Amino acid sequence: MPGIEHIVFLMMENHSYDNIYGMLSRGDGFTKNAAGQPLNTNPYTNGSIQHAFPMPNTCQLSGRPSQEWMASHNAFDNGTNTGFVRTNISSTVHEQVGGVAMGYYTSNHLPFTYSLAEEFPIGDRWFCSVLAQTWPNRRFLIAGTARADTDDNVNLTASYSPVGTIFEELDKHNISWLNYAPDDDWTTISGNTPDFYGANDFDSELHSHRNLSQFMIDAQAGTLPEFSFIDPNYGYQSQENPQNIVVGESLIASVVDAIGRSPLWLKTLFILTYDEHGGYYDHVAPPPALFPDNVPPSVLPGEYQYEGYGRLGFRVPSVLVSPYSKANKYVSHVVYDHTSVLATLQRKWNLPSFTYRDANANDLLDFLDMDALKKGEPTFPTMPVLAAAGNTPEAMACSTTGPGVIPPPGTISNPIKY
Questions:
Q1: Which residues lie closer than 8 Å to 191 by C-beta, 6 or more apart?
Q2: How far apart are CA 252 and CA 338, in angstroms?
Q3: Disulfide: which of 29, 80, 189, 373 matches 324 by Cβ 3.0-4.6 Å?
Q4: Rg of the Cα trace of the chain?
């Protein structure tokens, strides 16, 4: 990709493909009836059926769906994907709280997100790397392996990857990179992505950390590094429960706008995806995956190893924004996981692989018009006009008034009895 000199990456939190893109006009989303309403359902333990429903507003329940190791495997339910609603049941609340897993968003909730996906190519077979939550998935993202981790339950500062991380490789080969992260005193907190193998990357991040607001400045000045890794503020703008999801959408819009206005636009590739499904429903069963290495998962007491790391997690949204992105509402059906990002960086800069997983991952070139790139004829010479983010006063009001009744009345039916 000689015409691409800058790669920008942003990973948001905790939403499945169907939860965000199920109602998109293209791609493998919900099955719809003649009226355009989704037909997808999931059963409760009592036999009642929870139908997919649009979220009442852009605020999310504080009692979030579960995406932990056992919960994710229960939702997978041997490949039927019928365990989402049952999985999210808590012994301390009414069982119908599990119904939130069948909620979804539309262009009315997320106008910018839908506008971006209508213009630029999306992937409808991008799976997270493991049926688990944030930490193991982000470990796969930066090192091609989770090194036994299955839950958000390890000491980040003590964690170490003997095969290295992408940040170490970039340093080793003098490829410039910066981690643009929340405008906080970041030395007193952990949770930025380079911290997921902190023993490898903490010292390097001391020199490669910039405040998130600096990204917009560097993009405008044309001084972005070769690789920019953006971490949102995970407290309020990552789109994880119980956040108002339009706050995170506003961040995505700001990043895209900064790239589109940058003098580096014609040399830049922006990759957007999510770390895992967040407990929300998706109808596509995750496929088998290569074991990254010989390190088995370490599970919590009372849990099972299942297939280990031999299966991908649920689908997540993905968009590639570039002057050389494929046009005409392209959908990539190639199977990806988070190690596809590693594969792309490794093949771009001729870097070695870390594990069997990233060595064999599909890179992201199917999203790009390689003939246009070879000819230097951009498919998007300028950033198209996109809808504004949905963080309007009306949408933000639910941050005070609450997420509404979830699941909404009328969205649960009883099974037919003969």
A1: 156, 231, 234
A2: 19
A3: 373
A4: 21
Residue type, 284: V
Closest CA to 55 of 88, 117, 99, 90: 99
Amino acid, single-letter form, for residue 252? I
Taking each helix axis from N to C terminus, what angle separates 245-261 and 212-221, rounded to the nearest 10 degrees?
A: 20
pTM of the full structure? 0.95
- Could you give the CA distance from residue 263 to residue 29 in angstroms, rounded to a whole number? 36
In 3D, which of 89, 192, 129 has the Cα closest to residue 340? 129
Q: How many residues does the chain have?
A: 418
pLDDT tens across 268-327, in order? Answer: 999 999 999 999 999 999 999 999 999 999 998 889 999 999 999 999 999 999 999 999
